[in-house]
Design a protein that fits this description.
This protein is an alpha/beta fold. About 45% of the residues lie in helices and about 20% in strands. The chain has 2 domains: about 1-120, Response regulator (Rossmann fold, 3-Layer(aba) Sandwich), CATH 3.40.50; about 125-220, Arc Repressor Mutant, subunit A (Orthogonal Bundle). It has helices spanning about 10-20, 35-40, 60-70, 85-95, 105-120, 150-165, 170-180, 185-200; strands at about 1-5, 25-30, 45-50, 75-80, 95-100, 125-130, 130-135, 140-145, 145-150, 210-215, 215-220.
Length: about 220
């Protein structure tokens, strides 16, 4: 799961991001509302953690703009403000939950997990892709020959293709999903991962599960799913 933490206080942002990474999440960060809005609209995230008191663009306006852009990503608001009007403003703007500072990390972790689970329940957890079965809740993949062992990157790539079907997904979009936006990337890595997925899921090359559209990207080629 990929999270975006938008918090201007480095003393909170940096240790919180570290704890979330240690918990197994991929975490991108922003220190102001303008950068946070750009990342939230340009890159695929599973959850946003947004401080309300942000420079350049406050958290409430950021949330409104994210929702206006058609993004349904779950949003957890962080606020040091104690009056109920600020919390209501965040929720009315489109946030899903809020947490008042100061807070203990286990409480935030529980809120994050609850929002991610709620979002997951809104999607089918079991998919039958012809000869391939995917359990999104358990992150398990199997074929008629039995379970398929995928690396974390291979699974996340397959999961993203499933989420985007039947659309064509460019190499750039796959890179944005798999890697932090400021990492060095090599498009050959995506080709290698696609090749490994094909060999593991369709070793005899009979299903044509992942279609390559030259110059455009890849598409999950599954009828009736």
């Amino acid at each position: 799961m990929r999270l975006l933490l938008i918090e201007d206080e480095a003393a909170l942002r940096e240790p919180l991001a570290k704890k979330l990474v240690e918990a197994g999440y991929r975490v991108d960060t922003a220190s102001d509302g303008a950068d946070g809005l750009y990342q939230a609209c340009e890159y695929p995230f599973d959850l946003l953690i947004v401080d309300l008191g942000l420079p350049k663009l406050n958290g409430v306006e950021l949330i409104r703009k994210v929702r206006a852009a058609g993004k349904s990503t779950p949003i957890l608001v962080l606020t040091a403000r104690s009056n109920w009007q600020d919390k209501v403003a965040g929720l009315e703007a489109g946030a899903d939950d809020y947490l008042t500072k100061p807070f203990e990390y286990p409480e935030l972790a529980a809120r994050v997990m609850a929002l991610l689970r709620r979002a997951l329940k809104a999607q089918p957890t079991g998919l039958n892709l012809g000869a391939i079965q995917v359990d999104l809740a358990r992150q398990q993949v199997s074929t008629s020959a039995g379970p398929v062992e995928l690396t974390a990157f291979e699974y996340r790539l397959l999961e993203y293709l499933i989420q985007q079907r039947p659309n064509v997904v460019s190499k750039q979009a796959l890179s944005d999903y798999l890697y932090p936006h400021d990492d060095d990337r090599d498009s050959n890595v995506i080709e290698v991962l696609i090749g490994r997925l094909r060999r593991k899921l369709d070793p005899d090359a009979q299903l044509g599960l992942i279609e390559t559209l030259r110059g455009r990207g890849y598409r999950l080629n599954v009828d009736g799913v």
